[in-house]
């Protein structure tokens, strides 16, 4: 890293790379998007053109040789082995969720990051919205919550922009928006320690979850990306001895990603390796996703 900017490489060329990662890094005053790599060279060139000035790389190794840090916009089964190589090469990393395909893979990434001592952040962008951070601060300050609920109802997987994203269609709402939802419920009510019930309904591809928290609170989550809701419903609530708190979590992903980059740059500059949304958070959420799958009933 030079005195002013962090040289970053982008891995991936899907919709999120085009819409958020690439433009976000290119626009941020503290980062310089210098390299893009994807399995399809023409796709990497397309992202590089959108981001302005980045160089499409012929190989992942070429990208690693050029950058200080890597941001990933690829499916979990692709991200895990590449991220491991990046970490072992001493590169700081911004990681998509889910972190990996399995808890074991996620654990190996955490072990490597702790051993090498690199900065890591998960793309849990909701945490970086001022209104979300303010809501969480208030909820934690007040305390005494008996329970909570999350609703995420959208048409994302009916949108042709994601037609070429097989992992999203295979994993559905649980894999894509489940980590965000579990993260916010966990952050608001205390660690989720048990998945009490998990049900998947074929009509609408709807997930229904009942969660138990270390605090004694219980929460519910309803997740679907196959409902033509415009605007989408994306809200969280908690209730307890001091009443009720509601959060509308809709917002601009671009500004949230910029705030994530602020935090990432600060970690790199200060030599920090710990953050509430670092790679350890990714492992925790990976375990919760596994617990949901284990609790799934017909």
Automatic annotation (TrEMBL):
Alphabetical list of InterPro entries matching this protein: Gfo/Idh/MocA-like_OxRdtase_N, Gfo/Idh/MocA_oxidrdct_glycsds, GFO_IDH_MocA-like_dom, NAD(P)-bd_dom_sf
Query: Which controlled-vocabulary keywords does the entry list?
Result: Oxidoreductase
Q: Which residues form the Gfo/Idh/MocA-like oxidoreductase N-terminal domain?
A: 6-122
Kindly indicate whether the keyword Oxidoreductase belongs to this entry. yes
Domain of life according to the entry? Bacteria
Asked if the record carries the keyword NADP, the reply is: no
Q: Where is the GFO/IDH/MocA-like oxidoreductase domain?
A: 148-243
Q: What name appears for this protein in its UniProt entry?
A: Gfo/Idh/MocA family oxidoreductase
Q: Can you name the source organism?
A: Actinophytocola gossypii
């Amino acid at each position: 890293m030079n005195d002013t900017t962090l040289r970053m490489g982008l891995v991936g060329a899907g919709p999120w790379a085009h819409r958020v990662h690439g433009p976000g890094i290119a626009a941020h005053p503290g980062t310089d998007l210098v390299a893009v790599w994807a399995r399809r060279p023409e796709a990497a060139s397309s992202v590089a053109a959108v981001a302005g000035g980045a160089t499409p790389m012929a190989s992942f190794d070429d990208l690693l040789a050029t950058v200080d840090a890597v941001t990933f916009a690829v499916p979990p089964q692709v991200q895990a082995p590449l991220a491991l190589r990046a970490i072992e090469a001493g590169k700081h990393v911004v990681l998509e969720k889910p972190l990996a395909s399995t808890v074991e893979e996620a654990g190996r990434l955490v072990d490597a990051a702790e051993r090498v001592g690199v900065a890591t952040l998960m793309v849990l962008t909701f945490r970086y919205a001022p209104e979300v951070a303010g809501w969480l601060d208030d909820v934690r300050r007040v305390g005494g919550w008996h329970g909570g609920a999350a609703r995420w109802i959208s048409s994302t997987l009916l949108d042709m922009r994601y037609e070429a994203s097989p992992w999203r269609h295979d994993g559905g709402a649980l894999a894509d928006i489940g980590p965000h939802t579990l993260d916010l419920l966990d952050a608001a009510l205390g660690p989720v320690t048990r998945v009490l019930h998990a049900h998947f309904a074929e009509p609408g591809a709807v997930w229904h979850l009942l969660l138990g928290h270390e605090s004694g609170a219980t929460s519910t989550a309803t997740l679907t990306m196959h409902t033509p809701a415009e605007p989408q419903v994306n809200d969280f609530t908690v209730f307890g001895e001091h009443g009720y708190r509601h959060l509308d979590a809709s917002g601009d992903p671009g500004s949230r990603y910029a705030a994530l980059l602020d935090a990432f740059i600060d970690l790199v500059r200060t030599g920090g390796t710990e953050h509430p949304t670092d790679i350890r958070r990714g492992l925790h959420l990976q375990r919760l996703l596994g617990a949901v799958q284990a609790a799934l009933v017909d």
